[in-house]
Specification:
The complex is a heterodimer of chains A (177) and B (154). Chain A has 177 residues and is an alpha/beta fold. Helix content of chain A is 41%, strand content 20%. Chain A has five helices and seven strands, in the order αβββαβαβαββα. Chain B starts with a helix and ends with a helix.
């Protein structure tokens, strides 16, 4: 009996340690979005060139909505060429890439677009309304929308070539049925 | 001509400034905004509320809170909007229902268990050891003898 008690106190610490070990290994960024499979919030912004940018205008296409910032190094710098390359490769197949710069200065955002030679529409979210509507935590984050305008995939961190192509191909195939 | 134009621009600016100021400050107190913001986690920080964070994102979120309250939404509805976008994660204190109850109840259970253990240990430590000798009965003759021997100092 006495022996059991002696072991009980150190043993009681064990579940706490296990809980801490589990908790500290989780990334605080890996939080499932409650918006998945729901219709994407609509927005109307103005591109850096001054043209209107409305999500609703792209209904019927697979939309790749990318949130970025010029200060987001290296993530946004890694994915920018990939987004541009795939936008050129897929634009004829009913895919549109839209960029939204958040928490950025206009000149810096314009320079970013110039430096990477981005030709897809890019707009600034000056008030943060669009970011919050999409539940954006940070940059880069990318949302893949199907042709019905539903958010199907949320990708946190830089988009890779493989992620872009596999996700877009899947969404294209799915809606072509 | 130029002076007239300047006057017109100035008038427009003043009008815009006063109208926007009256639209937001008349209905929404900074206190209410702070109350809602204090319940929400700043999404770009770790362990800071939207009310406490100096980040730009938190500033924008406070502006959104203010705007929604000004549009006539209740504080609960504004909170629900953020939960709908970010999930319950954004609430600094998890709602008291379902699995979350564990977070609220476990500390109480732990404190109760701790108190119980302390009570048991104190009872055990202060208990007289079993089988201890009965106190010796000292009668008058005995105490007289003890007194004598103590006085004699041997």
């Amino acid at each position: 009996m006495r022996r059991l008690w002696r072991w009980l106190i150190p043993l009681a610490v064990l579940p706490v340690l296990v809980l801490l070990a589990y908790g500290f290994r989780m990334s605080p960024r890996d939080i499932p979005s409650p918006l998945l499979d729901k219709p994407a919030p609509t927005f109307a912004l103005t591109t850096l060139e001054g043209a209107p940018l409305m999500l609703a205008a792209h209904r019927g296409k697979v939309v790749v909505l990318n949130f970025w910032a010029s200060w987001c190094y290296p993530g946004c710098y890694e994915e920018a060429p990939i987004l541009e390359k795939n936008w050129r490769a897929y634009r004829e197949r009913g895919v549109v890439v839209l960029g939204v710069a958040i928490q950025d200065r206009r000149e810096a955002a314009e320079k970013f677009v110039r430096d990477f030679g981005l030709t897809f529409p890019n707009a600034q979210d000056l008030t943060g309304t669009v970011s919050v509507d999409f539940g954006v935590y940070g940059v880069p984050e990318t949302f893949f929308l199907d042709r019905q305008g539903r958010i199907r995939v949320k990708h946190v961190s830089a988009v890779t070539d493989v992620v872009f192509r596999e996700t877009v191909e899947r969404l294209l195939a799915e809606t072509a049925r | 001509m130029r002076a007239a134009l300047r006057l017109l621009v100035a008038a427009a600016l003043v009008a815009a400034a006063t109208s926007s100021a009256s639209a937001s400050s008349k209905t929404v107190s900074e206190e209410t905004v702070h109350e809602v913001a204090a319940q929400l986690r700043c999404v770009v920080c770790q362990n800071l509320s939207v009310a406490d964070s100096p980040s730009e994102m938190a500033g924008q979120m406070r502006a959104i809170i203010r705007e929604r309250l000004a549009a006539g939404e209740s504080p609960d509805a504004v909170q629900a909007y953020f939960v709908q976008r970010y999930g319950e994660w954004i609430l600094l204190s998890p709602p008291r229902r379902g699995f979350n109850l564990l977070v609220w109840l476990l500390p109480l259970v732990a404190v109760a268990a701790g108190l119980a253990i302390v009570a048991i240990l104190i009872a055990r430590w202060t208990r007289r050891p079993r089988g201890a000798a009965e106190p010796v009965v000292v009668d008058a003759a005995m105490s007289e003898r003890i007194r004598r021997e103590v006085e004699r100092g041997s």
